[in-house]
Specification:
Length: 105
Amino acid sequence: MPRWPLILLSLGALPWVAAAQPEANSRGALLYATHCGACHDRQVHWRRQRLVTDWPSLVAQVQRWQATAQLGWSDDDVQEVARHLDATVYRLAQPTAAAGAGLTR
């Protein structure tokens, strides 16, 4: 049996597989790896006294630590890093339009 049908099926499935995975080379992932990864391993996000409990607190913590490190990130940079952390670590509930006013995702 020729293998090309399997290859075509595999290629057809790639967009859905890629969409389900957080993009490892997203801007948020690169900013986090460059500026945060040296000190923050995965365990820092799972410590017992975790400060992140929802989307606003995640954005606030990213904003807090980029300011502490004097990184000068834009609001878009903060949002991208928060999205990266949410996709890879926190998996928080999506904010509703009313509850998340001013906090885009």
